[in-house]
Amino acid sequence: MKEMICIVCPRGCHLTVDEETLTVKGNSCPRGEKYGRDEVTAPTRTVTGTVAVEGGLHARLPVRTDKPVPKEKMFDVMNALHSYTAAAPVRLGEVLIADVCGTGANIIATRNM
Ligand code: SF4
Description:
alpha+beta, binds iron/sulfur cluster
């Protein structure tokens, strides 16, 4: 049995997942059941951070992945953000790095700059 807190919504239900049968208990909605199963089979996370930006109002631009990436790829994605520099102007939602680290996810801007 694995215990975890569902992070899909602010309610934070305490989940118990049987790793053999993938039975989830403690969830208040179906999203928690999916989250619990995914956490023991193929955990993913949306990565948020900032990248350097040239010619902008600020020195850093907030970004995130447009979908969750495998948890084991998170540090690779963070390193990709660290070594990337955007050039202003940048629009909210603009794809800055496509298919980051081969994850199938894109790095997108989360504000105009
Ligand atoms: S199980 Fe449902 S209600 Fe509970 S934290 Fe997860 S998403 Fe929210």
